[in-house]
Amino acid sequence: MYAASREASSRAREALRAALTGSDTVAETTGSELFAVVAVLDDQRSLRVALADKSVSSSARAELAERVFGGKISAATQAVLTTAVAQDWSRARNLVDTLELLGREALLRAADDRGRLGAVEDELFRLGRIVEDNPELEQALSDHGKPVPARRELLTRLLTGKVEDITLQLAEQAVARAHTNSIGEAIDKLSDLAASLREQIVAHVRAAVALTPQQREHLAASLQRIYDKPITVHVQEDPSLLVGVVVRVGDDLIDGSATGRLQRLRQTLA
């Protein structure tokens, strides 16, 4: 985002924090309704552009949002939306993407209020692995030639009754608005967002064999000393590594696998 949109996003997030002062029900309702607003704006380009038109006064844009959505969403959601559209955005798309992000954060806050944020984070991570390990499923979920409702319905059939309701809502939204063909990657970003709300960073670990609880604890403690922050460790088994582990934390990659060592040896010999 350009500077204007970053500032606008920051103010919209402040409005969200102010709105989520009630129960977890308020947070969940706000998140779900923000997703619904995003769906409308995605579908109606002229409305999307009008709500982010800097040549029109902020009060006029806020009034437009009230006319379109007033009475259809809760007061909390309307307050967030009114604040968001009153800001100056570099691009209309930045407004919509920010509303989606705020919807995600609201749902995760609801999970946190219920003491279920850790469970949602873990479910999202596991779902990401399931999708990445099943190319046919990932293709079906990312096929933009299929209507969004059909792709959402597929995910709903797979997950209903097996995960938290908030996990399902977040995953459905990721499928509906994924800007990449990697649905697994989109879901991983949701898991990372959940971890950040718990003030932790995520280490994505691929291990040649399953790690014992003691090995996980030792790895987490070692990474915490390196990054000086609490660490959430997500482990995926990958026998192709032969032995050892590969750890990714943000843009950092630590390759301690046999495959990695062999590759470095080949490069040296070449």
Q: Short description, anyone?
A:
By secondary structure, this protein is of the alpha+beta class. The protein has helices at residues 3-19, 24-43, 45-51, 58-69, 75-85, 92-113, 117-132, 135-142, 148-159, 165-177, 183-197, 213-227, 258-269; strands spanning 201-207, 231-237, 245-249, 252-255.
Overview of this structure, please?
67% of the residues lie in helices and 9% in strands. It is built from 13 helices and four strands. Strands 2-1-3-4 form a four-stranded mixed beta sheet, sandwiched between helices.
Q: What is the H/E order? A: HHHHHHHHHHHEHEEEH
Task: Identify low-pLDDT runs.
Answer: none
Major β-sheet annotation: 4 strands, mixed
Structural class: alpha+beta
* Estimated share of beta-strand residues: 5-15%
- Tally the helices: what do you get? 13
Helix content: 55-70%
Give the distance, in angstroms, between the N- and C-terminal Cα atoms: 42 Å
Number of distinct beta strands: 4
